[in-house]
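In the current project phase, the collection of sequences with tokenised folds has grown. A sample record is quoted in full directly below:
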Amino acid sequence: MRVQLVDPSAFTPPYDRALAAALARAGVEVELVTTRFLYGPVPDADGYEVDERFYRRTAARGLSTSARLPFKGAEHLRDMLAFRRAPSDADLVHYQWLTLPGLDRRLLPPTRPRVMTAHYILPPNASRRAARGAHRVFGAMDAVVAHSLHGAARLRDEVGLPAERIRVIPHGAFDYLTRLPEEKPLPEELAGAEGPVVLSFGLLRPYKGLENLLEAFTEVSGAELWIVGNPRMSVEPLHEAAALTGARVRFVTRFVEDAEIPAIFRRADVVALPYLDAEHSGVLYTGLAFGKPMVVSAVGGFPEVADAGAARLVPPGDTAALAAALRELVEDPAAREELAAAARAAAAGPYSWEEAARLTRDLYEELLEATPR
């Protein structure tokens, strides 16, 4: 069986490459079709091929060049048409993302069956127009993969896909981060912590609930809080809120490369994801990989991870509940270890890449058997 995994803009290279490697181990011939990722190193191709055919000129110009996005836009149609016309011996194409979904669905190669992973479905309270657009894109596929039962329900109830076209395949834990060939030491900004550490990691965005986390931390003693990630919002209000907590709060507000992640997660005692909205999160699957106790909001597929015993669940925006959960774990090492053991078990079981590859291959075989050749 030969499969193409397609992520034209390299939106999720860790996911793409982890799935490709797991499928290769499961006996699938895999070609990852993407672009060169410009933000840092990516995992090496392990048993699969990589074709960085998209946006080659834009990638060559680098991140700092002027008019990068318009230049990429100018390349997009040409590259999509070239991909459509290119000869391929793939039995099946599995799209991870489409850069311009409304346009791209009309430009896809004729290879069938075709699958798409619904990494993002719809914004909260989506308009009917947005739902119709999502239906046209996902409806162009022979099957759509959701990472959670919650995501599958949204595809069925909000997007309007038939249930038989949806398959739930959980996201794998990012265990490649636990075995990087070269790890960097803990950043200087985070050195010297003596007590428990609560970690908030990832891009700083309004929906991450960081203001609620800082408010909750006013009721947590004996620990310090780390907020680590590249800002996509103003950080000045966060610093102002941190000054009111009475606790030590440290910020690392920059891009954090993979080689820095292991030391940060290994030093953390609790990982907090107090999101106000999300389908899922790479931080969640990083926490699982490192076997970390987590406190997560009841949004998207997060409750399903909590159901596996790997996290404490709190209502989104409920700072009192968040403070109580954090306080319990900061004060009770045994409770932390119970959650950590469950996280390790989840990462080795239902949230392993081996399980994701098994379920994905089963889907491929089912679709190929049903497709006339």
User: Anything to note?
Assistant: The chain is about 40% helix and 15% strand.
